[in-house]
Structures are given as C-alpha cells and as structure tokens.
Amino acid sequence: MAKEKETIQNVPALIVDAPVPTVVGNFDDIERYLTNVRDSYKSVKLSTANMADVLRIKAELRTYRVSVEKIESDMKATRFNNPKKVFEGQMSKLYAIIHEVESRCDEVIEAENQKRLDGINQAIDGYMRELCAEYKLADDYLARVERRKAYYNKTQDEADTLNDLRTQFAQLAREQREEAGNIRLIKNACAKDSRIPDRIFLSALKRGEPVAEILEQIEEELERLRGLDEEKKETADDVEELENPDPVYAVDAEAVVELTDDAEDINFKSDLPKRTKTVMVEITYPADCGDAMTELFALLHKRGIKSKIVK
C-alpha cells in the first residue's frame, strides 16, 4: 500500500566548522613594485606620435601581467587545491546516498519508457507493412524512410505519424518511378549500337549525374561510332576497287578525248564526269630505283593520271 503523500523537506543547511581562510604573503612588496611602475608612466603622454614608446611600455606591462598570472596559477595548484579536494570528497558521500534510491527509481522509469517506445515501434512497423504493399518501394528506397524523433514524443498523435510516413513513401515512390524512366531512356539510347555498354551510363545515373547530360554523352558516342563506320566503309570500297577493277567498255569514237601534254591541268572529276576513278595502289620498289619511280610518276602525270603520296 502506497504511503500517504508527505511534504518534502530540504536537507539541513551545511555548516562548515572552519574559520574563513586567510592568505598571508608578501603581496605588499609586489603591490609597491607595480605601483611604482604605474606611477612612473602617469606623466607619459601616449599617442600615435610616440608609437615606439607605446609599444615598448606595452611589452613591459605584458611581462608583469604574465608574471602575476603565473604566481596565481602556481599558488592555486600548490596551496589551495587540497582543501578543494577534501570538500569535494565529503560532498560525494552525500551524492552517493541519494543515488542509492534514485537509481532504483530510474530503472523502473526506464523500463516503463522502453515499454512505451516498443509499442510505438510496433505501430510504426505495422504502418510500414501497409505502405510497402501500397507503394511497392525497392529495398534501396525503403531504407531511406526515416523514423523521425517526433514519432516518439509523448504528445505525438498516431494519425500524424501515419500521415508523415505516407508523405515519405509517396515522395520516394515518385523518385523511384523517375529513376526507372531514366534507366529506360538510357538503355534505349544505348541499344541503338551494341558497342555501347549501358552499365557505364547507368553508373553515372547512380552517382547523380543529370539524365540529360548522360543522354548527350551517349549521342556523342553514337556520332563517333557512325564516323568510324563511314571511314571503314570508304576504306573497304577502295580495297574492293583495287581487287575488282572496272571492266573496259567500248567508247564511242566521238566521246574519245585526246590527252595532250597539258592533260595534267585537267580535273577529271569535273571535266570528265563518270570517266574517272580513284584507287589506292601500294608500290614496292628497290631503294636504289628512286629515279625510275620519278620517271614513272612523271609519265603518268603527262598522260593525265594524277597521283599523290599517302603516308
């Protein structure tokens, strides 16, 4: 049976059976010394006009101040610290007596509070299951749902907790749908050329790069690959022309053009459309036959056949 409520009394006032401490030392000697220093500068006018004197006096006074501070700290540590420790030791005994009963109360209060928190967590777990079924968040998005501190306040209404959780789930569901759409855009763009691995650009999306910039990078890569394909096609066409030269057809006598010594000035592509062809020819010759090669190219040039060295 609980005790009747009693009036709580304060503990008796502490009566220290000790005289007020007095400190005896040669304070007068130090005081006289510093007073003389102070008086010696009373008549000195300090201004920006004599800044050198100001700095010198400031440095001197700083030395005195540091010296006094050291005297104070040393005395407190050596002469006055022990009485403080004795007093604190006596006070700790009083705190220990109070703690014996107070700690037992704390255990009961903590157990009751933990029971309340467990009930709140169970309720939140139930809300989470309902919202997971409704919004179908992936695990990485579900891990971002926050159990806010306000949920555990004694004044918090469960309806407010549920509404806040629903708001979080709705926002994360929107972000999840947006990410899924961005993934589809990236995969569809990469699917235009099987040589482009989508995993590189999907990793960039995970790092937070804007999808517009990623799609622009993919388009640049597609353009680069198209350029390479065009170069390969042109090279393949040239090789095919070398391996399969065009057959010689009979030409109408009226269409025959006589090549003269000035044939090198003819632009075959414009002057003789459909009657010129460009092929790539590799010529291997002894190193000491350079003069013969020069004569050969001069003869071809004279006949209107242009050539150039491709490195």
Description:
With 311 residues, this protein is an all-alpha fold. It folds into three domains: 63-190, no CATH class; 192-244; 246-302, no CATH class. The chain has nine helices and no strands. The longest helix is centred in the middle third of the chain and has 55 residues, at 81-135. It is flat. The termini are far apart. Residues 248-261 have low confidence and may be disordered.
Beta strand count: 0
Mean residue pLDDT: 81
Total individual domains: 3
Q: How far apart are the termini?
A: 109 Å
Question: What proportion of the residues form beta strands (DSSP E)?
Answer: under 5%
Descriptive terms for the model:
9 helices; mainly alpha; 311 residues; 62% helix; 3 domains; single chain; flat
Summarize the structure.
This protein is an all-alpha fold and 311 residues long.
What topology does this entry show?
Elements: H1 27-40, H2 51-79, H3 81-135, H4 139-142, H5 158-190, H6 198-206, H7 211-243, H8 268-271, H9 290-302
